[in-house]
TrEMBL record:
Name of the molecule in the record: Cation diffusion facilitator CzcD-associated flavoprotein CzcO
Originating organism: Actinomadura hallensis
Lineage: Bacteria, Bacillati, Actinomycetota, Actinomycetes, Streptosporangiales
Cited Pfam families: Pyr_redox_3
InterPro entries from the UniProt entry: FAD-bind_Monooxygenase_sf, FAD/NAD-bd_sf
Amino acid sequence: MVHSAVIIGSGFGGIGMAIRFRQAGIRDVVILEKADGLGGTWRDNTYPGAACDVPSHLYSFSFERKTDWSRRFPPQREILDYLWHCARKYGVLGQIRFGTEVTEARFDEDRAVWRISTTGGELESHVLVSACGQLNRPVLPEIEGRETFTGPSFHSARWDHGVDLRGRRVAVIGTGASAVQIVPEIAKETAELRLFQRSAPYVIDKPDRPYRAWEKAVLAKVPGLYELNRARIYAMFESRAIGFFKYPKLMSLVEKRFWDTLTEAVDDPELRRALVPDYPMGCKRILISNDYYPALTKPHVDLITDPIRSITPGGVRTARREYEVDVIVYATGFRTSDFLSPMKIVGRDGLELNEAWRDGAEAHLGITVSGFPNLFLLYGPYTNLGHNSIIYMLESQFRYVLGCVEAMRRHGLDWIDVRPDVQDAFTREMRERMRSTVWETGCQSWYMTEDGKVVNNWPGFTFAYRRATRRPDPRHFRARRRASR
């Protein structure tokens, strides 16, 4: 049996794409999920304090409104529950094959199908959609002696809830988005907390609070108010974009919020100096928190800026001394530029995706890759954001993918393949536009490849991306018409 479409991953991208397929009457769709539950990053990241840094009314599907969010910025459990709700309500839960990891996908050009090998067997599909996301493969740092540590140690995205941190000495390595949420929570119960910082982040205040009962009731009952509120939040966040990709000097307005947040929370001048980043505002991800800086002022919490030399059986050694700890938490991020790894993807003429991307990931509009017919990426290269909700970008991609699939059906096509010159032109445009962005002002971030190319972010307004993906342009593709049978 050849399926109409196979989707890899069951986070926001996979669930949303399956729903849109189903609404379009394309029901023979299979979702392959390597874990035992859906949710993607919101399933994996269960660490203390895990929450979203985009407001709840914007971090949700436009077609499935939720008026009873508990807070302005939703916690992890509530987001995961929302995804389960969507999967059940729209009838796609039964389409998910849990515990099924894709190892290889190979395009059979003669039959115009993708042959997909998984840990649960093989299947075939006319269309293959990758909804793996950019933040799904944790990175453990290559520190000498890491394997010798005798106590519990784990990555923040694989939190070991069986480890009791109460009264223990804990090391947190890394100061990114996860650490900023973790540190204030575990500082409430640890005896000692050592935070090892390689690079200070910019942290600004988080305008978060619980929603009042009357607010939820009004949003649910007053016609059009929910949509108006969502549009207001969208416009507010979208207005920040110009500082990221056009006029980086405007980031000084946001930098004032950073200084206000820091100076209000930290009196110690030495600690304050250690928390000031050495790169331009916005070059790396801007973080939001009301309790991170206050947590660092607690007497049992130490910020350590000396470079780590090694991990020992009993702790963490820097150039100056060894810190004895009982538990190590690695808040060290993800492999973000290897979009489909470790899967092996083989397209036309035996072309492997890893080979095609040896100089950095490329995909027209972040969705289609030349040489790989009927393969569509969600949240692919050049589609991440620094200023707004990724759900908005995903919904733009849903419409584009659906437009491609419906065009193939309407015109009787076996496959479509984006032309290499179209993909090259898009990549050149992205790299040219990237030069004026804040992301290329001299820092090393997860937005980049190892050789310094920013391949993750969209250098423009999200509404411009939606316009660009409104409908597929047939001139952009090579195609093969289905032979009459």
